[in-house]
Task: structure prediction
Amino acid sequence: MALVSAEKMLKEARAGKYGVGAFNTNNLEWTQAILKGAQAMNAPVIIQTSMGAAKYMGGYKVCYDLVKDLIDSLGITVPVALHLDHGAYEDALQCIEVGYTSVMFDGSHLPFSENLEKAKDVVAKAHAKGVSVECEVGSIGGEEDGIIGAGELADPKECKIIADLGIDFLAAGIGNIHGAYPANWTGLSFETLGAIADITDGIPLVLHGGSGIPLDQVQKAISLGVSKINVNTECQEVFAAATRKYIEEGKDLKGKGFDPRKLLAPGTTAVTELVKERIGWFGSEGKA
Result:
């Protein structure tokens, strides 16, 4: 199946009260792991690259070609969108031209008027090419590609203004955090989420920092309008843990256990299993 826009899959998720997993990739192995996990669960999926990960992988064109070609070579039949995560204005425009089927313009750290102006331009350019657009109001806590957010709560009125630009899905700060959640985290603000959902006329909402949020909070967020859940840190954690176990058990010293195809296999399998588990959490199994 060819890459698709995320717009249709997320509208269907919002209507059906389930979530679509949006998993960040960092290399060949992770891309395969995400695709295989989604295919096994017969679930639509969004593969994301951050600006930093895309640079590490060789650029946006490499990422696009990798995902597109793996879909073909692996015989993937579920809907797959390729999405830019937390993109700067210039990067969003570049990804639209390269072939990404979905982009996030993150202007949440900018003055609201500038965020609005640039978001409007991204929407116009993206929609002209059938590319879906995500924008953000109220920065997400933690750090993502050098953008540091304190995790403030988004203003529902600002969310309404951004949503009315015609964006396809909206990320809003509701107390969520990138990376590991601290012990004193107070949880998601469902009051804020409910107010945003009420005022934005059914637009699919996005939960960033999905790694580490308890199952009950994730599912409550979905019931209130969240349709896209981002997962990255947990994939990194299970990949690292499985790789560490392989080395600590000395398997890299047996035969040709140092071959990267063997060395990276346990971590890759761990990512696939996590993807499958989270798809189950989000309720999107069988929704392809």
Observations:
- Residues 265-282 form the longest helix (18 residues).
- The longest strand covers residues 80-87.
- The CA atoms of residues 169 and 204 lie 5 Å apart.
- The domain at 6-232+274-282 is CATH 3.20.20.70 (TIM Barrel).
